[in-house]
């Protein structure tokens, strides 16, 4: 015992004599680990007072989950930005502060024990060891940390795949593929009538073909996804995605092709000196408010491309009408940013990359699914609403009129 105390004192003294730059360097390498620990502490209190996510309100718990607020906790000379869960008392309707968050804000700085663990972790450069010792006060080995992490991810996957989608009123659906090294995953992102973005599901696939998309959509419907009110589906340039959507939704969906993907496909056939002019003409057409004007611009561009490069002209012609869906609905000015491209899901894909970039090798499909589900659950709470969300009810009304969907028998 005396030896351990002596070692801790020595490590603490080493840290105290370090330069400010060195201290900042130590902390910057471990802020993400500290954020994980803080989130774990806050979630434990939320579980105790409000139960698991999506459990029924008021059943055996005094509070309900109520979104999050931005917050921060000071660690040494640095502030760690975090999302602080909000709790609302079921009896009074008042919002309450998390006790653990208030305690975290009162911390003067890292404890002697924590500093010792950080230094140990830096000297061995063993992330798993540092994370394990920080998250488990008893101290566990590297293999034990790995098993705990895997178990948590298995739980995340189960929760993600089993959660009920019927409570979400989806007005738009974005489909796109994400590559994890050599493995492709197709992701479905839903947009609610309030403008919120919800990762609904994903499927591993070799290509973006219609059968895979059909299977993905079937799985979402089994979990409660409703589309009888009509839905706008945004897809990239892959023909398989469009085919799968048409086969599954039939006359209950409109397809909007991603304009960015189409433009890049067309430009890919052209010489460098021709690209800028074609790009500008395409963008002008896509910014038109009226369908007739936009279509006339594209037909004119297609005619000129037929002389310049037939392959580029054929690429533009393929799926042209699906480029103009927002114009047909009279909603291009309001939603060209949100639904004219797959940018909303591209942002999601980028964040997934941040979670998975340290994975050197995907051992099997189960590992891919565990990591994807965990990443999507983490990202979901950070996603912002789509632009012009207040106009989404109007968009739905336009979709229903175009598809001739009756509203009489809705519940």
What does this molecule look like?
The chain has 19 helices and eight strands. By secondary structure, it is an alpha/beta fold. The protein has a five-stranded mixed sheet, with helices on both faces. Residues 114-142 have low confidence and may be disordered.
Summarize the structure.
The chain has 411 residues and is α/β, with parallel strands linked by helices. It has helices at residues 2-16, 20-28, 31-50, 99-105, 112-124, 127-135, 142-162, 210-222, 239-249, 259-267, 272-287, 291-308, 310-317, 320-323, 325-329, 332-339, 343-356, 365-380, 392-403; strands spanning 63-75, 78-89, 95-96, 170-180, 183-192, 197-205, 231-235, 253-257.
- Estimated radius of gyration: 26 Å
**What's the order of the H and E elements?**
HHHEEEHHHHEEEHEHEHHHHHHHHHH
Count the domains: 2
Structural category is alpha/beta
What percent of residues adopt helix (DSSP H or I)? 55-70%
Q: What distance separates the N and C termini? A: 68 Å
Question: Which stretches are poorly predicted, pLDDT < 50 over at least 5 residues?
Answer: 114-142
Gross geometry: globular
Number of strands: 8
Strand content: 15-25%
Q: What's the main sheet like?
A: 5 strands, mixed
Helical segment tally? 19
């Amino acid at each position: 015992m005396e030896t351990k105390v002596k070692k801790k004192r020595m490590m603490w003294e080493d840290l105290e004599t370090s330069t400010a730059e060195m201290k900042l360097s130590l902390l910057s390498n471990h802020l993400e680990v500290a954020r994980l620990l803080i989130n774990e502490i806050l979630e434990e209190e939320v579980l105790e007072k409000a139960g698991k996510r999506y459990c029924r309100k008021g059943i055996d718990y005094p509070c309900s989950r109520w979104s999050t607020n931005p917050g921060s906790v000071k660690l040494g000379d640095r502030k760690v930005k975090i999302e602080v869960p909000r709790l609302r008392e079921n009896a009074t309707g008042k919002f309450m502060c998390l006790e653990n968050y208030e305690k975290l804000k009162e911390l003067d700085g890292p404890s002697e024990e924590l500093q010792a663990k950080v230094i140990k972790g830096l000297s061995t450069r063993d992330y798993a060891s540092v994370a394990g010792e920080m998250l488990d006060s008893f101290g566990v080995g590297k293999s034990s940390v790995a098993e705990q992490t895997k178990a948590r991810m298995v739980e995340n996957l189960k929760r993600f795949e089993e959660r009920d989608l019927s409570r979400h009123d989806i007005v738009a659906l974005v489909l796109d593929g994400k590559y994890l090294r050599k493995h492709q995953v197709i992701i479905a992102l839903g947009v609610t009538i309030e403008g919120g973005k919800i990762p609904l599901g994903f499927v591993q696939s070799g290509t973006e073909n219609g059968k895979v998309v059909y299977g993905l959509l079937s799985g979402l419907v089994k979990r409660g996804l409703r589309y009888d009110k009509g839905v706008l589906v945004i897809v990239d340039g892959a023909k398989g995605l469009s085919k799968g959507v048409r086969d599954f939704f039939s006359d209950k969906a409109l397809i909007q092709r991603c304009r960015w993907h189409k433009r890049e496909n067309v430009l890919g056939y052209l010489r460098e000196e021709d690209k800028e002019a074609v790009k500008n003409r395409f963008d002008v057409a896509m910014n038109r408010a009226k369908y007739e004007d936009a279509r006339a611009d594209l037909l004119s561009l297609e005619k000129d491309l037929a002389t310049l490069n037939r392959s580029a002209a054929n690429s533009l012609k393929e799926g042209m009408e699906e480029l103009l869906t927002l114009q047909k609905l009279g909603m291009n000015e309001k939603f060209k940013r949100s639904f004219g491209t797959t940018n909303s899901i591209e942002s999601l894909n980028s964040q997934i990359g941040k979670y998975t970039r340290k994975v050197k090798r995907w051992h099997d499909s189960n590992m891919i699914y565990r990591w994807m589900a965990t990443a999507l659950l983490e990202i979901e709470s950070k996603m912002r609403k789509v632009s012009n969300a207040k106009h989404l009810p109007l968009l739905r009304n336009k979709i229903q009129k175009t598809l001739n969907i009756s509203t009489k028998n809705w519940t």
